[in-house]
Amino acid sequence: MSLAEKFRNEIFQVSEASLTTQHKMIKDDFQHKLPISFLGTYVTEKSGEHKNETDLKKSGSVHIINGMRIFAIKNRISEPSTFGRLR
Predict the structure, then answer these.
(1) What is the pTM of this model?
(2) How far is CA 82 from the centre of its chain?
(3) Tens-digit pLDDT profile for residues 47-73
(4) Cα–Cα dist 35/58, whole Å
(5) Contacts of 58 by beta carbon, 8 Å cutoff, 6+ apart
(6) Within its chain, how far is the Cα of 6 from the centroid?
């Protein structure tokens, strides 16, 4: 068993033993805001080089990626890539 597999198994065991670990991962995902306002409009950068643009990586895809990580750990899916986990 490789070092990566040992580490992954340790993460699975810790996560199963403690719901707190899963809750902390979910809470961390809430630190990233969705790019949609209360009124349903897109939230854009207020200033800088990307003024009036939406950072899809920071505010969009991060939720999909984090959700897949949480799902993978909870279900002992060892696929390292998000795309692979989606299959």
Answers:
(1) 0.67
(2) 10
(3) 888 888 888 777 778 888 888 888 888
(4) 9
(5) 32
(6) 22
